[in-house]
Structure formats: C-alpha cells, structure tokens
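dumping the sequnces here before i forget
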Amino acid sequence: MIDYDPDLDKSKSRGKSAIYRSKDAARAAGPISDPRLKLKPYPTPAASSRKRSSVVLGLLRYSYDANSVGPKPASQILVSGFSKLTLEKTIALQFHKYGDLERVAMQKDPITGASLGMCLIRFKNKTVMTTSKRKEVDLRSGHRSAKKAVTDAVRGKIMVGLDTIKAEYDEEGKIAQKLLDEIQEKQERAAREAKEREEEEKVRRAPPDRYLDEKPRASSFLPTDLPSRRKSLFDMIGSRPYLFISDRYVPVSRVYVQDIKDYLRDYEWTNVYRELAGFYVVFDDLAEAKLCFRHMDGRTMDRLRWRANMSLQLPFVKDSDHTQSSADEHKSKEGGPKKEREGKDPMKDAKDTVLRELRDMLRKDIKARIVPVIYKLLDSASLPAVHAPSVSDTSTTTVISSAAPTSIKTEDVDTFSIDESKTGADIVENRPEELDPSTFNVRQYSGKLPNLPRFRRRNDASSSSNSALKAAIKSKKLAADKKKKKDDKKTRPMTHHLNYFSGDDGDDEDEEEKLDPKATDGDNEEFEDFVSTARSQQGQRRAAVASDIDSRDEDTPMPDIDDVLDTATSSGKTKRKATSKSKAQRPKKLAKIDFTTSEEDEDDELADSATLSHDRPSGTANADQLPTPSEEEDEGFDSLRALYTDDSYWTSTSRLVQRQVEIDKVFDLDGIQSLVADSEDFKFLQAALQSVSPDPDIGNVQFWAWKQKEAKANFYGDLAGTPHRGATRKLVRHEDEFEQFNSTGSARTEGYYRISEADKTEYLEHRKRLRKKKHAAKDNISSRSHRINNRKLAADINLQKQIFSATTDAAADVLRFNMLKKRKKPVRFARSAIHNWGLYAMENIAANDMIIEYVGEVVRQQVADMRERRYLRNGIGSSYLFRIDESTVVDATKRGGIARFINHCCTPSCTAKIIKVEGQKRIVIYALRDIFANEELTYDYKFEREVNSDERIPCLCGAPACKGFLN
Amino acid sequence: MTTVTMSREIVSSFQPSKSFRNHQEGSKITSIDFDDSGSNVICCGDDESLTLYDAKSGKFTRPLYSKKYGCHLARFTHSSTNCIYASTKEDDTIRYLSLHDSSYIRYFKGHKQKVIGLEMSPSDDRFLSSSLDGTIRLWDLKSQHSQGLLTIPTPAFVAFDPSGVVFAAGCEATGEILLYDMRNYDREPFEVFSIESLQQTDNGQIPTQWSKLEFSNDGKTILVATQSAAHYLIDAFTGQTIMRFTGHPPALFTPERQFSSSGNTCLSPDGRFVFSGSHDKKLYIWDIQSPIRDGAQRPIKSFESRSSISSIAFNPRHAMLAAADEDLSFWLPDPATVDKAK
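..and the predicted 3d for all of it:
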C-alpha cells in the first residue's frame, strides 16, 4: 500500500517517487476485521453510484431507426367502411392531411376486379435533416401520420361521403390479405355449393322453370325419404295460399326461416316453412298473398345476394286463379316506405306519381314552349286585317315606340301621338326611318315589358294613315317576337313572362285568348293595365320632358348646336329634329332601366348610359345636349344645361357620374364666346340664330351665362384642384417639361397652394432622373435573361474546357484565368461624388451577379504594412490594400485592376466576397441588388472600428443610413 | 422520467430493440460498460476500437480508435466523458482517456502481462486492475503511481462491494474468493471463502473457469459466473453457496479469442435477476426468488438473440440490457407488457 504519492500529496515534501508502506508497518496496524460490519446500514453507495440497488428503474423507449430490431412501426393502415363506389382519389384526399401518402391501394376482388370497400394506405416517411446536417429518412414519420389517422378514425372523425371510416394498422397488409382470402373463400364456397346444387338439381330433375306447379309436381321432386314430412307440410298448409321460394334462388342451406320472415316482415303471412325444395310462406288471406307476391317477387334480399323469385301457390281448390306469371314479373319502382302500404298499392302509387309528374311536365312544357309561340303569334297577329277593327274599337291600343319602325320605306309622315295621360297630347312628328335591327330591338323593350312608358296612338290623328300604321305595327311586332326570342329570354325568364299573364286578373281568359288572334287587343290592354302603375311615374316624367322640348327657348344657341351635332351623327336620310331624336332615344334608355327595376339606380344608369352611348364628336365648342333625364320631376328635358347650372346636382349626386363626364362634355360657354371674335362674327351668329326662339327657362341671360361659367369652373376645380376659368385648353403635359396650368397665366397671381407629389416628379431634377430609371428598368434585361446568358456562358466554358483539357495544361490555365474575366461586367471609372474616383456600371446589373474581380499583387501582411507606410510617405492618400485573410493582402496600388476604384458606402450596392478559385483566394465583387447603368458601384469596406477619433476616416457616401465614418 | 418496476413479467418481456454493428466485420466486442448515470455505453472491440452509444436514445454516438495500443475492458470513470481501458498491444498499460477530446489523461503503468480485470470503485476515484502476471493493483485516477500491489498465486477476478470498502479477488485455480479491506489491502485478506462447488472440476479434470465476479448491489451476495454449466451465488459474508444457476450450455472453449470477455453474466440492479448470454444465441434469465429445484435454479426464460452473447451488462439506472458479441444489442422490456404492468 502506498504511503506517499507525489501526485496526490500537494506538499511533495517526501520527494518525487512514491513511497510504499512496508509489510511490517502494515502488520503493525493491527488485526483486520470485516469493514462492512462496521457500516450500518450496509451497503451505503453514493446516490450517483452505479452500484446502487434499485427495483424501480427508468423506462426507455427507443424511437425506430435503422438500428432498430423488430417490426417497423406501422405506416400502413387498412381503411374500410366506405362505399364500394368510392374512388381511391377520394380516400387519398381524406388522408392526405395526415401526411404524404406513399401508396393508396384500393383492395379489389381478385376475380371481378371490383372494389371491396377496403383500402390500404401507406404513409411516406419524411426526409429530415439531422443535427449533423445529414439527410436522413425519419422512419417514424409515416407511423406518426398513420397513428393520427387511426386515432381520428377511432374517434369517428374521418368521413368519406356519408360513411364513417374504420382504420387500423396493417403494416404488412396481413389484415387486408386475410379479408381478401375470406372473400375469396366465400366465393369459392358459393361456387362449389352452386355446383353441388346444380348437380343435385340434375339428379332431382328439377323443373326447368322457376315456378313450381302445385302439389303433384312439387312432390315429384321431393326426396322420397321425406314423404311424411312433406305430407305433413301440405297438411299444415292446407287450403291456404302460399308463396314458394325455390331453393334455386334462395338457398335453403344458407338462409334461415327468420331471414325470410324478416324479409317479408311487412306482409301478414301466417307461417314460413323451410323445406329442402325451398321456403313456403303461408298466408291466411289470398289477397295478402297476392299483394306480397306482386311486391316482393323478384326482389333481392340479404344485401343483394339472393333474388327472391317466388311463385304464388294458390290452394288447389282455386286452381284457376293460379298465377304463374313469369312474364308479368314486374319490377316496380322502389316505392315509398313499406309501412305506408296499408290501403295503397305501391305500384298504383308509382303509376299515379309517374302520370302526375308527366302531366306536370307536359303542362310546364306547354307553358314554356308552346304558349310563348302561340302568344307570339297572337302578338304579331295584330295583322292589319284583324287588327284594324280592333284598333277602332279600343281607344287605348298601344303603339309601343315613338319611332315606329317600318321595314317599308315610306315617305309619308306617320304621326304618332304621345299619349300623355295627365297632360294633353302633343304631337310629335316622326319620320319613319330605316332602322337597323339592333336599335329596333332595343326599342321594342318598351313595348314588351312592364314598367315601360308607352306611346299610345291617338285615334283621330292616325285615321288617315291607318294602313301604314298597321304595317308599322305589324312589322314592329314581328320584330318584337324575334327579339323576344333572342333577348327576352335571356333577360327575363319565360316564367316571368307567363306569370305576368297569369298574375293578371284575366288569367284564364288570357290563356284562352292567346289562341284567338282577335283577342290581341284585349291582351295588350291588359298588358298595359298591368304596366300602368309602374308607368305612371315614367309617364309623368316623360310628359315633363316632352313639354320641355316643346317649350324650348329659341333664343339660346343650344338648339342650333344640337342640330349641327345631329346632322353630323345621324344618317343623311334622317331629317328629324334633334329633339325628336333625343326623344326617340329616351325610351331606349328607359327600356334599359326596366331591367334594373331598382328605382334608386335609375338615375345613375341613365347618366351612365347617356355618357357612354353618346360619343359625339366634339365640334367647335362642345355644347353637348345629352338627353340625360333629370332627377327632379319638374326639370326639363334640357336638363343638361340645368345639370351644369345646378351645382347642387353634382354635389348631391356625387356618384360615379361626375367622374365619368369628360372634360370635353362640359358646356364651355367661354369657348363658344371666344369663337365670336368680333362684331362681324356676332352678326353672322345672330343671323344664324334668327330662327331659334329663346328658351324661357333661361330667364335672365346674364345670370344664366354666369351660372354656366361657374359650373364649368367648379367642374375643373374638382378635376384639377384649381378653378379654371376661361376657354378650355388642352392640358398638355410634356415628357420633360412640366407645365403648371395657371388660369391667370402667372403663378405669382395664384397665391400659395400645394403642388401634389405626383406633379413634383415632373419637374424636380432628381425625381425626373428616378422616373427615367424606372422607365429604363422596364425595358431592361431581367435577371432571368441574365441567368439564361450565364447558363449559355457556362455551357460555352464547359465546352472550351473539354477542348482545352484535351490539349495542354497551360491552355487550361489560360482558360481558368479567363473564366473569371469572362463573367466580368462592363464597368468604367470616373470621378465620384464620394471620393475622387469611383467605379460605374455601364449596363444594368442584376442582383447577385459577379461584377469584377479585385486584382492586385498578393503580398504578405508584413509587406503590406511596409508598403502602406511607404505609400503614405510618398503621398498616395488612397489605400488600395485589400485583406484576404490574416496573412495575405492584395495590393492594387501600383499594379491592379480598376476594381480598386470602388468606393465605400454604408448602404452599398455590391459586396466583396473572397472565393477560392483553383485553391487560390480571390476577391470578387458581386452585386447586392439590381444596379442600373451609370450607377456608382459601392461596397462596404468593413474597416475595423477605430476608437481613436484621430484615426477615424469620415465617410462621404451620403447614404441615408451613413454611419459617418469608414472605421 | 417514466419508470418501471422490475418484476418477473417485465424481465421476461425483454426483447432486443436495437442492434449495432459498428466494429469491424468479424471482430468481437469484448467488453461493455455503462456510466454511472446509465446513459452512456462504451464498448471495446478486438478491432482496436472503442464505440460509444447513447443508451437513452439507443443511438450510436461515435467510434474511438486505439489502434496503436489496442483496447480491452473499457470502464467509465465516475464521469461519463472519461474512461480507463487496458492496452492489449505494445505494453499492458492502463490508459485514462478523455472521451470528449480523445486525449489520454494518464497512463497507469505497472502490469507486466495482460490485464484481465478492471473495476472502478463505486465510491471514489480508485480502481483495481488484475493481470495475468498474478498481481492486482490499486490505482488512483489522479496518480500515475500504483496505490497498491497485491500478489496472488493465480490470475484473479476483482470486484468491489457496493460501498467500496471491500474488494473481492477471485482465484479460479484455487476456487477461493479473497476479501480485502480497501484500507489494508497490502495485508492478508480478512476473509477467504473457499468454495467447494467451484473447486470441483467438471468431469473431475479441468478446474472451472470463471468469467466474472460481481457483488450484488445489496452487497449481500457475490455472483460467480463461470464458463461451465453453472453460475454460483455466494453469500458475501459467509461464503456459502446460496444457489446454482443451471440450464444453459457451458461456454465453448474458444482458443481463437485473444482475451476473455468482461463476462457474459450480470445481475440486475435490484440483485434479483441473473442474466447470462451464451454462444447458442440465447439469453437466459434466472430469478433468484423462484424456488430451487434439484439444488439449482432453472432459467425462468431464455430469449432468442440474433447472435451469440459473450458480454453482457445491465444498465444501472434503466431497465435496459446491453449484450454483445459480434454485434451490440440493446434490450428493452416490451412496451405492451410495461403498459400492462402499470
């Protein structure tokens, strides 16, 4: 035993070598006893000791990995319980949420290939990155997915269609195989049994047909060893009727009596007997037996396995009644629930239902298809011959459109009256014109649909030209029908149309009358009546409009301008007055309104349609007479004037309308006035306007003119932010030259106002540049094309490389050298705002592209230090030393590339990377972001921070985030 | 940490859960050792490499190579980052290795022949080594000097009692177990058990070869594992043979083996179960509490293993067993049984 150990004894007082106890000294220590006995309790191992006795031990669970022994955690599950019609896809979709699926295998019948309603799903194991950055397949991930799926399935959470799915682990597919085997076995057994039965049948010489005759025949095939029982059976049956279900169809060996009883549970059978030949269902009541037979014969039972073909056996007393109807085996529709059977014959029910439905369908069809045709015929049946008398009869015959179209070109003037229900009649002359179908069609709406304003023919006025009118009406109606076919259906369902008639008072009449062409008028009348409510408002409005038209002040220049416009737009043949045209357009617009029945939208729509449909060429001055209806009832048809006059209109109806009115459309009185340059012009103007009577609405002409101008000024004020007075000018904006439009012509007289940011871009220098850049960027090479180029280049280099490698090593070196060079971007150096020289891009450079290599002499640190001092001494203020690593520096001062000119910036456009090329460290500048041509290239010098303020180099990069110093 | 109470059911449900083959093809694992926390395993292979495993997650950590010196009987010190192992080449030095930087902390030189036993004291940093040169040396991890030298006539197996106050040296040639006091072990043993059953030779000729000497954790018994058809449980105080474990095939005499394994038998931490692997690819378990029939315990269960088992060790903290020969396998109780036991 050691006495002194220099390693353990800190004092080391007894030398460097260990001193051991001598035997004698040991012996002198006295007798030894068992030291364990002195320890109470014994043993006393430390808590951390591995020799501590413990019954309770930690439980370890190892996750499955490549080293694991034993079965893999199941990542495959067997899903069942869904419909056999379910597709694999549907299942996959359901289970995809638990994890990626490796395999979805619907289990199929090996013979028929039909789905068995089972599906094996294997979840994929994910590939994960381990802590040591290795890709590894997580063998448990699939199991986790499977587990989730199974858990959810157990909770009944997974549904496919309406079925709740069952899921269980089936890693090896054993369960699925077992089930498959079972099914197969079942099939085999069934086949075997069928075969056996067949043979039996053969032996027994079973009757060829499926219906059995009565007793004598039935007994003939019965096994002879059961005569007594057989006899007793028929004794039991006695004279009661019974249904016989042959063993051939429902195997006696596999179906129990109870099954049959269940199957026929809805019928009041007395008893069911099971015999070798089949089942006997005995009834007390013949009617019930018949009913049962009728309903249940040929139906399938026990989940489609058996087709329970029956034969009804009547008591042989009533032999004549025997039904042996294989022919009338009727597969009636699956009727209602069986419990409703009482007192009802499902078949009759079904028949009734079918008939009823057919009837309904027929009715519907008639309504939908035939009636409209008839109606059309009737409608257009206001043929002259038929219609003429009725016209004279009824004073309220409708003439639908004011501009009654005619295919017949007549020079005669058809006079229509606008039947103003409230006000009197004003005759508006209308020249029949050759209308193109489209406008024609549009107009027809007014006649065809409710809510429309109508023009009624005045009896007396039209009497002279009756035939022409009739012709007009006829053609119009025909067209209307045509139109209906085309458009009406789309816009308005036929049912509406029909409902309209049926909804009316004279519903029945109507339908009947349609057949009678003579009844058209009455029809139309009703039509009109129906419309009347909706119409009244419109009518009123129209009345107002009409009166306005007539009472137009001739003094104003307006009508003239209107005329000019009209002649310009309308065809040469049209000799209508502008007012009439605008009126003609009016119903068209109203017709449009009718499809949007909402009253609120009306005005918007009107204004919209007005603005959109009238693209009139702005002539001299644009006094556009938009036939926009006014909002207020009492406003005139020349509401446009009021529109601009009345500010409140714009403010109150501050809707989209306002924005959509183009500048040109604003009534520019100033413009008109400016046209009249001198007294001579004025004279001519006066002469021209001689025929025009002044508009009484205008009243005080001075005031009206002022109002016009103000309205315009306000309009521009809204538009441009500054009220614009004077004649309208085109606001021309040049690309480079910003022109601030001042109404007074001088900015100084305008006072202070804010110029919008967008405007500032137009003339502020730096923003202009920015804008240009933006434009330039658009048509520049994208980074994508850059990549393509680079790829091409790479392929090129590879090709070259191959060639060179075949030749010499020296050539390869050249190539290597060139590889860096070739990727270089065109750059140039020029004076810089940051520091005396700078490097500029000569073309646009995409982010992450290599720009240039920092080339210079590669020197050691010591050499670099020395050189730096020398350069300082020689007065070279700029430092072109670039450190690669601790011991290497690239000196580009005397020999080096132009990369040395790149300046520092705190928000740099480039970055310097040290990359290894062929084992050598090279400094390469890469673009940090997209760099535009002529932009200065900068990168962060990343100088070490100096504490000493004297040694700090101020940064002049001017970036917003400039730190102020380079170091 | 979830725990499990060691019971016959649990023990009977042990099954291999992991299997590793991180040593060279054809080489054998000669020793297994757990660290104090039972979370690390170190194995020595005769391919001169050591392998480390994480026992808790059942994963291979990394290999260590000792190509120059060879390795045998690697034992964790009380730190799981250090180990000692015996060289098999060049000399018979015991090396103290830091695992985290793979550097040797100390060499313990002294043995003249192969070290056949190496045991850390459960209570302090001292450890015992026995060698074929007939000596047992006591060392301290902090000192390169042998703390004590004991010369016994035949190569011996050494074992510490759970308190670390006593150690046993088993001489297979004489069939004796010598108990020494740690404080006075340069003197004669305070107790010498002469075990008759171990002195008897199989078939009257060859003396029973031992393979391991181990104190149970309650300190009351000593397990003497042999290479014959029986293992013995000896009373640690009286030296009486308590029971004999039979029912397993005797170890094969394998002359191609360079060194004996660290023992194919071990006790569970509660001292109730004896595990023994054998070359017939089976793991046998005896339950000390089961009744003795014909003067010997029969295994309560024998498990099929994937390979033969020459070394075995039970995790001191977890219900886990490591068994090795050509490959290392970690055995765990069956989760289903554990769940049922709860």
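The CA atoms of residues 225 and 231 of chain B lie 5 Å apart.
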